Amino acid sequence: MSNPLEQFEIKPIIPINIGGVDISFTNSALFMVLAVAVSTLLLGLCLRKRTMVPGLAQSIPESLYEFVANLLRENVGVEGLKYFPFIFTVFLFVAFGNLLGLFPYSFTFTSHLTAVGSLSIIALLFNIGIGIKKKKLGWLRTFLPRGIPVALAPLIVPIEMISFLSKPFSLTVRLVANMTVGHIMLKIIAGFIVGLGVLGAIPFLFDGAIICFEIFISLLQAFIYTVLSCIYLGDALHEH
Fold first, then answer.
1. Cα dihedral sign for 130, 144, 77, 178?
2. What would the pLDDT profile of 111-125 be if each residue is shown by its tens digit?
3. Are β-strands 17-18 and 12-14 bridged in parallel, bridged antiparallel, or unpaired?
């Protein structure tokens, strides 16, 4: 049985070293590119022939559009719809990253702290930029909500700062933990299929059930990641 952790090893595909800095194109980078390419291609093919009465293919991207738009309306308000492209991109990137990782010999970049953490930090910086753009210096009220006595600032401000900076951490850990645990289980059970020979039919059926469950988890985690991103965007736009 192979090591179930081998599937998370980042391997260089095109080694690139500039000034002692390793910026190689890796399997992780490859599947990030594939997630973008596949999602763009599929949505483009579905919308190739648009009609007033959508068929099955056209209904898929339209349903995704309305789904994410509703998340923004519910968690941010109508004002949040202007930031739809960013939130929609985040949803597709995470969802396709999760789903592509379920294919044999693929790589799940959403199981790595660096990849997901970078995306979460980008989302945080995006929210900070939006908050400062709308509220100017009033954005600093994020760390001292209205109604709090100034005398309590030395206590409240550090707590609010820790809470604010922990947002990308909470986004990252939840997604990474779910993707990692699920793929480890799949790998372990797949090892029993090979090792048990004819009797491997039993773990094979069990592995198939877990794959179906992992598809659900992949979409659910993309949904949760997007909802939290919307909530954090709402915090940036509105007063406490």
1. positive
2. 888 899 999 999 989
3. unpaired
Annotate 165-178 with three-state secondary structure. HCHHHHHHHHHHHH
Q: How far is residue 71 CA from its own chain's centroid?
A: 15
Residue 36 CA to residue 121 CA, distance in Å, equals 19
Neighbour tally for 139: CB within 10 Å:
16
SS3 call for 107:
coil
What are the structure tokens assigned to 111, written together?
């199981």
Is residue 145 a contact partner of residue 202, using CB atoms and an 8 Å limit?
no
Q: What is the pLDDT of residues 4-48, one digit of tens each?
A: 777 788 888 988 888 888 888 999 999 999 999 999 999 988 888
H/E/C letters for each residue in 58-94?
HHHHHHHHHHHHHHHHHHCCHHHHHHHHHHHHHHHHH
Alpha carbons 163 and 68: distance in angstroms, whole number:
26
Cα(43)–Cα(41) distance, integer angstroms: 6
Closest CA to 214 of 191, 180, 239, 238: 180
How many whole angstroms separate alpha carbon 89 and alpha carbon 43?
Answer: 12
